[in-house]
Design goal:
Chain A: Keywords: Cell membrane, Membrane, Phosphate transport, Transmembrane, Transmembrane helix, Transport. The complex is a heterodimer. By secondary structure, chain A is mainly α. Chain A contains 14 helices and no strands. Chain A has 2 domains: 94 residues, no CATH class; 235 residues, MetI-like fold (Orthogonal Bundle), CATH 1.10.3720. Chain B is mainly α. Chain B has a single domain, classed as Orthogonal Bundle (MetI-like fold), CATH 1.10.3720. Chain B contains 10 helices and 2 strands; from the N terminus they run ααααααααββαα. In chain B, helix 2 packs parallel to helix 10, helix 3 runs antiparallel to helix 5 and helix 7 packs antiparallel against helix 10. The chains are: A mainly alpha, B mainly alpha. The interface between A and B is large, with 93 and 88 residues.
């Protein structure tokens, strides 16, 4: 007992003693902030648990955490102002605010992940991945046609944009000079800012004029629209990766009499291939979730369509959109399908991102040899 | 003199491989310019009929194209501005947290977590906004109109569904958060360490150090990041199309059920059923959106370029 009391008394004894250490006198204990935070969270959690019990509604964890952090900001500011003075108090307040900002950003992320999984699981079954929506009214059916369409259209878009984007990046890094280089760099930046729906309208305008069909819908148009969005991303990331290749490697290759194009193909590209693949993966992940351009040029349908050049083609994001917006009589079935589609989409994007990171880990050139 | 006439410059051997390869790179580089020109040309070509269309061709009671597009332009800018207003302070906070507050080892992982937000497809955000966010904020909106109804922005009557432009702006803010955060974070990390250490050595607290060294250095970066976020918010389609219950009005009230919709959402909602001149009108509105985002993005690039010259680092 006495052992636990003595250390508590020691600081007070020191601060009131004749030789006070001015540097440490006005300072909150080391873990005070942490304890205050936990205390505040405990208080708000208790408050909301009681509130939930009293009103019979569910426990509102988001509000509890959020208000807990706000309460922490106030308490720590007052405490610090009393003990440490205004400057330090302001510093602590800003620390609390900045951490709150981070917490705020986590709330939607957790909420989106939770609702998508919780609502998507009921229809995340074999039927969902093995059937299309043809002749389905109400429950049942699946998104096979949409998944197929997404794979075809995104694959085609990658097939267009990867060569174009990569060659452009090579031009910018290895060959480009003068006005053309500046122009391309500038317009790649401009292209990054094209709204996705405008890309869709462009593909529509292009094919409507060329085919003369004012109501044209086809999968290839969707691929063109996605390419417009994807090319600048591929160019940017590949350019950064090519710039990282040390010039000594190129010079060594030239010194051995290797032609420039072979130097690029055999030395520069293999050195940077990991980064380039990562960039391409992330670009694909970026466009695979695009809805607006596909809604416009690829349209929607309930049947399988393997032909990119003819007829409407369903894609996963558009599937989610149409299932939600055009709910039939059996509302729940449509909503369940929409959420299952959303879950599939998020899983695909997550998978692409993970593969990208693994590729960059595994295949990046070993340094420090 | 007696030296041999200057030896003819040794010409590099022309190899077909080199020729083919360099031509291929130039062609694909130029293809980007051609594409962008094509985007502009085809949009203009398809949009032209809309400017002289009959008054009956427009939905609602618009007489000509400009009356039709006016509320849409207003809605687009208003929603994006609201989103920006919410996203920028939070994004700066997150960027500071990751660059200057979080423990070093955690910082990168925390950065990934925020980047995850950027990986969520917009249609999923739309679903989330309509099924989770809108019902969750509706009671809050009701009390907001009760207490602050005198303030024009929060004027009643409140929407019963929560599907208002403020909800849209919140979702848009969440969507542009990762972009602004990532760019500001990069800029904050580039602050010269000597500036920071000098501030700390003079006895500044961490916040004073940030105020003195980091924020002045990062200000142009924050501005251009915000502009890029604004560009993204202007062009975002699905969230607005799904969450908002649209009307062709110009109204600053953010909690009512009558909300101005945006150009992109209007296109997405009406395009599948549009025909003849209706298609041209929608494409013309798309052209306007293209011009607006182009202007915003170019302004952002201009600020970035200017920053290079007057960077505090050199």
């Amino acid at each position: 007992m006495s052992l636990t009391v003595t250390p508590q008394q020691a600081p007070t004894g020191r601060s009131t003693g004749p030789i006070a250490n001015t540097l440490t006198a006005g300072k909150l204990p080391r873990f005070a902030a942490l304890w205050v935070l936990l205390g505040c969270l405990a208080v708000t959690t208790a408050f909301f648990v009681i509130l939930a019990a009293a009103s019979g509604t569910g426990f509102n964890i988001a509000a509890a955490v959020f208000l807990g952090v706000v309460l922490y900001g106030i308490v720590i500011w007052v405490l610090s102002r009393v003990v440490e003075g205004t400057r330090k108090a302001k510093d602590r307040l800003v620390t609390a605010l900045v951490s709150t900002a981070f917490t705020i950003a986590l709330l939607p992320l957790i909420s989106v992940a939770y609702t998508t999984i919780a609502n998507g699981i009921p229809r995340f079954d074999v039927q969902f991945f093995s059937e299309s929506m043809r002749n389905v009214v109400g429950a049942g059916g699946g998104a096979l046609h949409a998944i197929m369409g997404t794979l075809l259209i995104t694959g085609m878009a990658a097939l267009i944009s990867v060569p174009v984007g990569l060659l452009t990046a090579i031009y910018l890094v290895e060959y480009g000079r003068g006005k053309l280089k500046h122009g391309i760099t500038f317009f790649v930046d401009v292209m990054t800012g094209i709204p996705s729906i405008v890309a869709g309208l462009f593909a529509f305008a292009l094919f409507a004029l060329f085919t003369g069909d004012p109501g044209i819908r086809m999968g290839f148009g969707g691929a063109v629209a996605l390419s417009v969005l994807m090319i600048p991303v591929v160019v940017r990331s590949s350019e950064e990766m090519l710039k990282l290749v040390p010039n000594e490697l190129r010079e060594a290759s030239y010194a051995l009499g290797v032609p420039k194009w072979l130097t690029i193909v055999k030395v520069v590209l293999p050195t940077s291939i990991a980064g380039i693949i990562t960039g391409v993966m992330i670009a694909i992940a970026r466009v695979i979730g695009e809805t607006a351009p596909l809604l416009i040029i690829a349209g929607f349908t309930t049947s399988m369509n393997y032909n990119l050049f003819e007829g409407r083609m369903m894609t996963l994001p558009v599937f989610v959109y149409t299932q939600y917006m055009n709910q039939g009589t059996d509302v729940q079935a449509y909503i369940d399908r929409a959420w299952a589609g959303a879950l599939t989409l998020i899983l695909i994007v997550a998978l692409l991102n993970i593969v990208a990171r693994v590729v960059s880990k595994l295949f990046s050139p070993k340094t420090g040899r | 003199m007696t030296t041999a006439p200057a030896a003819p410059a040794i010409k590099a051997k022309q190899r077909p491989g080199d020729r083919v390869f360099s031509t291929a790179t130039v062609v694909s580089g130029s293809l980007i310019l051609v594409t962008l020109a094509a985007v502009a040309i085809f949009l203009v070509a398809q949009a032209l009929p809309a400017f002289t269309a009959e008054p009956t061709a427009f939905k609602g009671d618009a007489e000509n194209f400009w009356q039709y597009v006016g509320p849409l332009v207003f809605g687009t800018i208003w929603a994006a501005a609201l989103a920006l207003l919410m996203a920028v302070p939070v994004a700066i906070g997150i960027a500071l947290f990751i660059s200057h507050y979080a423990p070093r080892r955690l910082a990168q992982a925390l950065g990934y977590v925020i980047d995850l937000l950027a990986a969520v497809p917009s249609v999923v955000f739309g679903l989330w906004g309509i099924t989770v966010l809108a019902p969750a904020v509706q009671p809050f909106y009701t009390s907001l109109t009760e207490w602050f109804g005198w303030f024009p922005l929060f004027a009643g009557p409140v929407s019963g569904t929560g599907r208002t432009i403020l909800t849209v702006a919140i979702v848009l803010a969440v969507m542009i958060l990762p972009i602004i955060t990532a760019l500001s974070r990069e800029v904050f990390l580039q602050t010269p360490v000597l500036h920071e250490e000098a501030a700390l050595a003079l006895g500044a607290t961490r916040w004073e150090m940030i105020k003195l060294a980091v924020l002045p250095f990062g200000r142009p970066g924050i501005i251009s990041a915000s502009m890029l976020g604004l560009g993204r918010a202007l062009g975002e389609t699905m969230v607005v199309a799904m969450v908002l219950s649209p009307a062709a009005v110009i109204s600053f009230a953010v909690l009512q059920s009558q909300n101005p919709t945006t150009i992109a959402a209007n296109i997405a909602l009406n395009f599948p059923e549009a025909h003849d001149i209706g298609v041209n009108i929608l494409i013309a509105t798309g052209l306007i959106l293209f011009v607006i985002t182009l202007a915003v993005n170019m302004l952002a690039r201009y600020i970035v370029e200017r920053r290079k010259d007057f960077s505090g680092a050199n």
